[in-house]
Structures are given as C-alpha cells and as structure tokens.
Specification:
Blueprint lengths: L9 E5 L4 H12 L3 E5 L13 H12 L3 E5 L6 H15 L4 E3 L15 H29 L2 E6 L2 H4 L6 H21 L4 E8 L26 H7 L10 E5 L2 E5 L16 H6 L1 H5 L13 H9 L2
Helix pairs in contact: 1-7, 3-4, 4-6
This protein binds nicotinamide-adenine-dinucleotide.
C-alpha cells in the first residue's frame, strides 16, 4: 500500500499532552500534518492545569521539524471548545481532522458516586465532544471534508464496576458518532470511534503489566488505527474500532432477527413466552446504509 500522507492537512487532538493523544499528534505530524496539541495539563482526575504537557508534545514535534502549536483550553466548556478550534483556524486556516481524546477518571461505585463526580466526567468526555465537534463541524462543512474520531471504551460499551459516569460518557460519544456520521455524509465528513486499551497514567493502577508479561500494553499499539481513521484513505463512517496490545477489531451495535407477534398488541404472558426468540443472539446483523434497522422492523411488522 502507498504511504498514507497528511501533507497539507490540519488536525486538532484534544488531550494530546500525554498518553494516547500524544502518540496520535506525533504520528500525524511525522506524516506532514499541522497539529494543534490541546491539553489542559491537569491530573488524571481533571484537577489543576499547566502548559507543560502540551508544550512537551509540541517541542517533540518541532524536534523533527514537524508543525504544531499548543493550546491549553479545557474541552469542558463551549468557549474552551471554540478557542481550541479557533487556534487551528487562525494558525493554519482550516481544520480537516478532529480527534477528541481528552479524558479524566473519577471512579466510584454507583452507591457512593456524587453528582459532582458524575457531572465532572460527563462534562469532559461527552460535553467536551460537543464543545469541540460543533465549531469543527461548521468549518469542515464549509470545505466539504472532515475526519472526526471520538474515544469510547470497553468500560462503557460493555460496562465496568465503578465507572457509571465514565461508561455513560463513553457510550454517549457512540450515539453522537452515529448521528454525525449520517449528518456528515453529504459533506464528506467521516465520523468514527476508537475503543483503546493501553497502559497510560489513566490506567496504570487499573492494569497490572507484571501480571501480564505476555502482552505489550504500549499506547503506540493504538496509533495506527486512529491515524488511519483520521486519513483521507478512510472511507468508513460510524465504525467503532477496538485497538490494544497489537489486537484490532470492530465493535458494533447489532440487532437480531426478532419476531413479529401480530398486529394486535400481545399480552405480557405472550411476550414472556417468546423471550427466547426475542433475545436470541445467534444471528446478529448490523445496520447498513441500504437497510436501516427501523426499515427492517417495519418490513417485518407489515407482514
Ligand atoms: N488508556 C486506556 O486503556 C484507555 C481505555 C479506554 C479509553 N481510553 C480513553 O483514551 C483517552 C486518552 O486516555 P489516556 O489513557 O491517554 O489518559 P491520559 O490521562 O494520559 O490522557 C488524557 C489527557 O487528556 C487531558 N485532559 C483531561 N481533561 C482535559 C480537558 N478538560 N481539556 C483538555 N485536555 C484534558 C489530560 O491532561 C491528559 O493529558 C481518554 O479519553 C480515555 O478515556 C483510554
């Protein structure tokens, strides 16, 4: 395959002062992309802030004569989101790629989770996705081109103890992706989501590499997937790609054949008696552009 180049492209990567985002920013810049390196520079719970994280990524990119500029605004407010995207528009004249990667953790069992812990996490991951995607969207639509990559997690897609706030925020981005993929179709905007798994400061005390000597948890295992999703060569949209430890795969919202129980509303008992065919997962399918789920349902219900 010919080399995937980003010459002439402009990207914003939120939370790219460290961890996964830093690897995305560096790889994009290595391939000729001008990158806005956004990072608030706080701790992994979202407390505090500093310019040093974003500055370090920019210095590394400048070190190999790449093009990058730092931005220290928070994704958690709309004004912050606008300022982040404005940095790209003012410095480079456009935005082709948005990777919303910024994130924090405030884990707690649901019984003990405070409203502050709930809202704090939703605010950075999900509101943050809106705050940067909205101004980026308007600029991308004008140019009839765009690539957006949101960040989900198996903790949200499949659930994980103590992460009600994080799981909801991470799955919320999937809903946003599906809608933007539809709305972006006629403007050449592809919208996809990465589900990463790697050892970073966010996960250092969640995962135990010493217990798993057989796997390599380096963040750079995620980079090729995200950089491809950000490229012109990526024609897919509405995809969730899982990457980690050298493994790559697709996770998707799917549906089973279901059953049509009649035009007259059925009793609760009839529903219960049909539980097995209603919930059977042996023949799952995913929605296609040719037949959307509601078209499938209505076709079956019209029999
Ligand atoms: N590491 C994993 O295994 C894993 C798994 C699933 C999902 N994720 C997701 O991947 C993304 C990157 O995580 P990571 O593991 O590299 O963690 P990380 O803590 O190293 O990186 C997150 C970055 O986001 C920045 N940030 C936080 N709040 C911000 C804000 N309001 N505005 C701007 N920047 C902000 C932080 O300063 C930090 O540099 C996150 O969205 C995380 O939820 C990571």
């Amino acid at each position: 395959m010919s080399e995937i180049s980003f010459l002439g492209r402009v990207a914003v990567v939120t939370g790219s002062g460290g961890g996964l985002g830093k690897t995305y920013a560096i790889e994009l810049a290595r391939r000729g992309c001008a990158v806005v390196v956004n990072d608030l520079g706080g701790d992994r719970h979202g407390k505090g802030g500093s310019t040093s994280l974003a500055d370090e990524t920019v210095a590394e990119i400048k070190g190999f004569q790449g093009e990058a500029v730092a931005n220290y605004d928070s994704v958690s407010t709309f004004e912050g989101g606008e300022a982040i995207i404005k940095t790209a528009l003012e410095k480079y004249g456009k935005i082709d790629i948005l990777i919303h990667n910024a994130g924090i953790l405030r884990d707690r069992s649901f019984a003990n989770m405070s409203a502050e812990e709930w809202h704090g996490v939703i605010n950075v991951h999900l509101d943050g996705a809106f705050n940067v995607a909205k101004p980026a969207w308007l600029a991308m639509r004008e140019k009839n081109y765009g690539r957006i990559v949101f960040t989900s997690s198996v903790s949200g897609l499949f659930g994980n103890f103590g992460q009600a706030n994080y799981g909801a925020a991470k799955t919320g981005q999937v809903g946003l992706m599906h809608v933007l993929a539809i709305e972006g179709q006629k403007y050449g905007i592809k919208v996809n989501t990465i589900s990463p798994a790697a050892l970073t400061r966010m996960t250092e005390d969640l995962q135990r590499p010493e217990d798993r000597p057989d796997v390599d948890e380096s963040p750079t295992h995620i980079t090729p997937a995200v950089v491809f999703l950000a490229s012109e060569q990526c024609q897919a949209t509405s995809h969730i790609i899982h990457a980690g430890n050298g493994f790559f795969g697709r996770i998707q919202v799917a549906y089973n054949p279901g059953v049509f129980l009649g035009k007259t509303p059925v009793s609760v008992e009839t529903f219960a008696e049909n539980w097995d065919p209603i919930t059977d997962t042996t023949e799952m399918a995913i929605q296609s552009p040719e037949e959307r789920y509601m078209q499938y349902v209505l076709k079956k219900a019209a029999r």
